[in-house]
Structure formats: structure tokens, C-alpha cells
Write a structure and sequence with these properties.
Helices cover 41% and strands 18% of the residues. It is an alpha/beta fold. 52% of the residues are buried. The structure holds NADP nicotinamide-adenine-dinucleotide phosphate (NAP) and magnesium ion. Magnesium ion binds next to strand 4.
Length: 492
Amino acid sequence: MATKKSNTIKLKFDSARSLAPAPESKSAAKIDPQYELFINGKMEKPQSKKYFPTINPATEEKLSMIAEANGADVNKAVTAARNAYAKTWKKMPPAERAKYIYRIARMIQERAREFAIIETLDGGKPIRESRDFDVPTAANHFFYYAGWADKLEYAFPNRRTEPLGVAGQIIPWNFPLLMAAWKIAPALACGNTVVLKPAENTSLTALKLAEIIQEADLPPGVVNIITGAGATGAAIVNHPDINKIAFTGSTEVGKIIQRAIAGTNKKATLELGGKAANIIFDDAPLDQAVEGVINGIFFNQGHVCCAGSRLYVQESVFKEVVRKLKDRLETLIVGDPIDKNTDIGAINSKAQLDIINKYIKIGQQEGAEMYQSSCALPKKGFFCRPTIFTNVAQSNRIAQEEIFGPVLAIQSFRTDDEVIEKANNTPYGLSAGVWTDKGSKIFNMTTKLRAGVVWANTFNKFDPGSPFGGYKESGYGREGGVHGLNAYVNIV
Ligand code: NAP
Ligand code: MG
């Protein structure tokens, strides 16, 4: 009898795709029909008089209109930040600064549900992701850096530090609120003021954060949040009164920024693209490794700079791992991101979906063998089936270039030296993963893999206390942890 019962439960679980819909309620999220620019503590109409729509990529419905900041708006925001820096923030005792940052952290926690829903509606990521990862991790970053504000002397023993001044911060669309937190929290803790620009496709949670900053009574001008497209970002980068540029985005734009600030006194941290390798040795716990690989590339639709988009499997377990991956792929639920059961949500934009589909074609043309989940895709919105490629050559574009979508390129290897060589053989170096039972192998690999983060027997794990950043074309500088403070101080 007992056996029968457990079989029924198992069957239900196996047919996860036929689970009844479990949508999060949208009513907990208040989205205004139009948003202005947050400058000097107030919502200001853009001098450009222009607005652009932001849509829900899962339904293609318009959510709101967003102000487009031009050069004059950027100038207003930078002036507000400069005044706030000189008159208030720089002079404020660090313990007082910390209180404001703590307040922001607590208010994000209080409104966590609203933030998670809006993040999912505006960006397309599964509500489980926004609820369990993005929003709590964003709050944790504010908590963590609030703690450092009055302890900088311990971060830099026997040295005196000064803030840099006004930081221009430009962020991408894949982790909108979390990236804002990564940028704003350490800047404020170190005594800088901020002009932040979210990505055009995902401005809403940054604008909600502006509401919190207003309610937290942060002195006007300490944080300014201005929206717009690439030209707005470029106007921030080129403004003469900015002291530091913190950028997360593509390697292509990172290079433009580097050229633009060459010969100026502006400091920069650049967090750019990636092509991370996950490496499975034959002694690894295979089921755990497969789950980690799935999580590492299909999590957030592969819209993760450190996504494990390449997989190297030791030859003796290659067939078994590929079979397990295919089986697991079939159980992933692709669909409405606001549904709590969804594993893979919407691709962030039509433009990004076109890029991913282009690479899927390239992979086939290059002679790789494709396997896609057989799941049905919603009729409206931007969706992509989770896709794996085998029979991939190291020189193939799908093994070298960042796709930024749910596409995994798999190769086999025989020896440690061979896999180190292959894993390091891309222009990027942001992250990597090693799956093995042997500690000594982990240490050997972590010292030889040219990647900013190497996870062992896990993947995509983040903590505000640990630094993150890349080698080579993945950028420079570190965010997070005590290292992240370096990016916002002058040591005098
Ligand atoms: P992107 O095109 O480089 O955009 C990033 C940000 O820069 C956006 O706010 C964008 O504005 C702005 N921007 C565009 N052109 C600019 C210019 N000429 N000057 C100044 N700012 C400019 O990247 P994306 O498509 O948003 O994001 C995907 C890329 O980001 C991927 O390559 C990914 O690997 C990388 N990424 C890296 C990390 C990391 O931590 N290393 C994290 C997340 C993403 P608009 O979007 O409004 O045009
Ligand atoms: Mg949107």
C-alpha cells in the first residue's frame, strides 16, 4: 500500500510540466503608467521631453513609459551628485552614513515581494529567481556594505582613505536590482555620491529603489537614478565632473568606455562578458554535477555573465552525463515567469532572442549536434528551448563566443592538462566550475584556471562578502567583499 502511494507521488512529480498554474499575484506590484528621472531627491521630468516604453517580455505588453535622459539631464544629475558630495555626504560621520544604508536594506526587505514581482514582469526572469535570489541578495549587499562604512580603517590598516567623489554607474538588464545594489552600496559606504543608469529594458526596479531612497530620507543628490539608452550611458561616461565609472555589461561597450576615459583622471571598474567552463571529472558525484550544470546555464535563461555555457566531461563518463543532462532538460518547465513552478522564463528582449537563435543556427552549421527539450513554448513573448550541443570543436564559435542564452556547448577530455588548456582557451575569464571528489584536484584546477571565480562542486553561488570579477576580456576590478571597497576609495 505504502509503495503504491509513493509511486503516485513520483508520477505526479515526473509530469511536472502538467502542474496546475501557480501564478504570483500581480496586484502586490504597483507600476505607474509613467516614470520620471530621480535627480536631487525628486522625480523630475526629462529635459529631452522624451519617453520610451518598457514591456513584459513574456507577454509583449507595455508596462510603463520611462523617461529618456539627454546630456542636459545627465549634467543636472551630476551637478546634484557633486553638490551632495561636497556639502553633505563627504562630511557626514561614517556611522551616520551607515544608518542610511541599513535603512535602504531594511526597506528592500519590507517590499521584497513587490520588487520580485516587478523584476519578473519587466525582465522575464522566473519569479522564483527574483524572489529567492535577486531581491534578498540585493538587500544583503546593502546590509554588508553598511557594516563597512565606519570600519574602513580595518579594511585598509595603517592607511588613510578618501572617497573618489561622484561615481557614474551603468548596469545591464540581467540582474537589474542586484546590479544597482552591487554598485550603489559600496560607493555610498565609502563616502561617494552616485549617478546610476539602469538598462533601457529593465528600469523599473531601479526606479522603485529611487522611491525607497526618497522614503529613507537620504540627503538629496546622494543617489541619482536616470534612465535612457546607450547615449545616456555615454553622456555619463564623458561627463567631465565624474570621478569614477563603474560599468557592468558587454565587452564591446566596455572597450568603448575604456577608450573614452583614456587620458582622463577617471577611475574605472569594468565587469564584462564571460564563457565559463564547467568541468566534470569521472570521480564526481554525477547527479549533483548534472544539477549544477543545469542550474549554471539554464538558470535565468542563460542571461548570466558567469553562466556555465561550456561543459567539459571526462571521457569515461561522457555518455552517462550527456544522457542525464538530456533527461533533466525534458523536465524543465519553460513558460510564464510569474508562475512559481517555472524554471526558465522569457528571454529579455526580441533582440536578445534573435542573437541566441543566430548562435543556435551557427552551432548546427559548424557541425555540432543539437539537442533541444521537446517542451511547447508560449505563443506570445520571447522564449527559447533549453539547448545543448555535443560534437563541438574548441574553435567553434558556440565554444568561444558569449551567447547569453540557454545554450550549452559540451566537449569531452582525457587529462587534467588538456582540460585546463581548453577551459582557458577563450578571450574571457570570469568564472569556472570544477566537479570532483578530490580536494587535491580542486586545488590544482583553481590555481591553473584563469577565471576570477572558480566554484567547486557547486555553481553560481554568491555572497556579498566574496569578491567577483574577471580576467582578460571579462574586465578588471572586483566587486563584493572587502575588495569591492578598493574600487571606491583613494588611498592617501
Ligand atoms: P550592454 O549593451 O553593454 O549594456 C550595458 C549597459 O551599458 C546598459 O545600461 C546600456 O544601455 C549601456 N550602454 C550601451 N551603450 C553604451 C555606451 N556607448 N556608453 C555607455 N553605456 C552604454 O550590455 P547588455 O546587453 O545590457 O548586457 C549583456 C552583457 O553584459 C553580456 O555581455 C554580459 O556578459 C554582460 N554582463 C556582465 C556582468 C559581469 O558582472 N561581468 C554582469 C551582467 C552582464 P542600454 O541597455 O539602455 O542601451
Ligand atoms: Mg521590460
